[in-house]
Amino acid sequence: MCDRFTRPIDVLDLGCGTGRYFWGLRGVGTLTGMDASPAMLEQARHPIHAERLAFAIALVQGDLMTHAFADASFDLVYSIGVLAEHVPLERTLAARVHAWLRPGGRFAFTTVHPASPSVPKTTGRRLAALALAVAPAAATTPLHRRFVTGGRYADERWITSVLADLFTIESLDRFTTDVHLHGRCVARKAA
Questions:
Q1: CA atoms of 97 and 41, how far apart (whole Å)
Q2: Tens-level pLDDT at each residue, the chain (191 residues)
Q3: Model's pTM, two decimal places?
Q4: Where are the domains of the chain?
Q5: What top-level class would CATH report for the domain 2-113+153-189?
Q6: How is 122-163 classified by DSSP, letter by letter?
């Protein structure tokens, strides 16, 4: 992701936790790690592979739905294992990230897909999945919103609708870990 930029970038890690992904960044000028947990941020002060980090890190305690950053502060905003897992992926959040990004900036994130084996397979959820598969999309919007639990899970349809008109999706795919079926998205700020 970082290699898509041709100059040092300013990065925001939404829900940075212990800073476990900081070491994977390259070409970074500054990194801001934000998390709601003071205990996680304390661990992020000494992240894994700290010896590899050659950039400034600022840690911020805050709620990503209410914390304010100045417009056009970042080139890259990323979030791994937070959105559509611990925090709903909603249009209001996408609009906040859009404002924080500079022109051409990117928003990269993972989600838990509603088809993940970790998501409870209730009778209602099974019936909804069947209906969503056969009915026209326009007729199933309220059902789909319930299926993704208002953004607590996110499939390709949900991600596309949340990012519409704000971002151009560069990649959107699925991958599996030992715990979940995930969605993975990289989107560029629309002009």
A1: 21
A2: 888 899 999 999 999 999 999 999 999 999 999 999 999 999 999 999 999 999 989 999 999 999 999 999 999 999 999 999 999 999 999 999 999 999 999 999 999 999 999 998 889 888 888 999 998 888 899 899 888 988 899 999 999 999 999 999 999 999 999 989 999 999 999 76
A3: 0.93
A4: 2-113+153-189
A5: alpha beta
A6: -HHHHHHHHHHHHS-GGGGHHHHHHHTGGGTS--HHHHHHHH
